[in-house]
Amino acid sequence: MDGAFDSALSAFIDGLARTEVSERTFNQFAYRNDNVGAANAIRRENLRLYLEQMAVIQPRVLMVGEAPGYRGMRLTGIPFMSEYMLLNGLPALGLFGSERGYRKTDETERAGKEQSGTILWGTLAEFRPVPLLWGAFPFHPHKPGDAWSNRAPTTGELLIGQPFLREIIRLFPVEKIIAVGNKAEESLGRMGVDIAGKVRHPAQGGKNDFVAGLRSALAEYRR
Questions:
Q1: What's the CATH code of the domain at 212?
Q2: Other CB atoms closer than 10 Å to residue 11's CB: what's the count?
Q3: Is the dihedral of CA 70, 176, 162, 171 positive or negative?
Q4: 22, 36, 55, 78: most buried by Cβ count inside 10 Å?
Q5: How far apart, in whole angstroms, are the C-alpha atoms of residue 201 and residue 179?
Q6: Residues whose CB is less than 8 angstroms from the CB of residue 31 and which lie 6 or more positions away in sequence, other chains included
Q7: In this predicted model, what pLDDT tens digit does every residue of 68-127 receive, in sequence order?
Q8: pLDDT of 201
Q9: Bridge pairing between strands 176-180 and 140-141
Q10: Nearest in space to 113 (alpha carbons), one of 152, 78, 169, 72
Q11: Spatial separation of the C-alpha atoms in residues 40 and 75, rounded to whole Å
């Protein structure tokens, strides 16, 4: 990695941290002077490590999801990544793991799993180079009064996410972009970004359709 990438990555993460969100959304990267702020700092570093690893891998495919879930990116700072996978790593891909510097926050006692992330990363092990992941809205949208819940991002929130999505596309030399779910497709369409296809989100019984759709869309990258 060169100095230009490092500077761009630092500016990208700083931009995430400085973004103001509504009371129905949690910015898991925000600068704060409290215990939550300390956890956010860990998440910022986790994200930096992930994007630096992906810069070495040079992914040719970008998969764009919807928004962080409360068991996934909300806790770890990495798309579709549970605390369990963050600490234990994915040996088949040579990614993540505490030995590579990834850390868990103190917000939960045990490192839990997240169904969608388990399905997605298990499927990604079939492809080389492994695709890069990002979200149409990179902050955690939750139901009013329940910070540990999920909801779909609004159109306004998707607009907030677009500059970060554009920067991810600029930073990495991707050849194909795959939308994971309707919200990702909607946001990419509003941006005028050509996509290679859309796959169903793996949640709520969508596993089989997701796996089949991804294998079809990325057949040329299968090992």
A1: 3.40.470.10
A2: 11
A3: positive
A4: 78
A5: 9
A6: 17, 18, 37, 40
A7: 999 999 999 999 999 999 999 999 899 999 999 999 999 999 999 998 899 999 999 899
A8: 87
A9: unpaired
A10: 72
A11: 9
pLDDT (tens digit, 9 = 90+) per residue, 152-175?
999 999 999 999 999 999 999 899
Into how many domains does the chain fold?
1
Tokens 């040719």 correspond to 60
Residue 154: give the domain boundaries.
3-221
Beta bridge partners of 132: 62
Q: Between 115-124 and 207-217, two packed helices, what is the crossing angle to 10 degrees? A: 30
28 sits in which H/E element: none
Q: How far apart are the first and last CA of the chain?
A: 26
CA 177 → CA 59, 69, 107, 159, 221, distances in Å? 11, 21, 33, 18, 13
Query: What gap in Å lies between CA 54 and CA 48, rounded to an integer?
Result: 10
Q: What is the pLDDT of residues 17-70, one digit of tens each?
A: 999 999 999 999 999 999 999 999 999 999 999 999 999 999 999 999 999 999
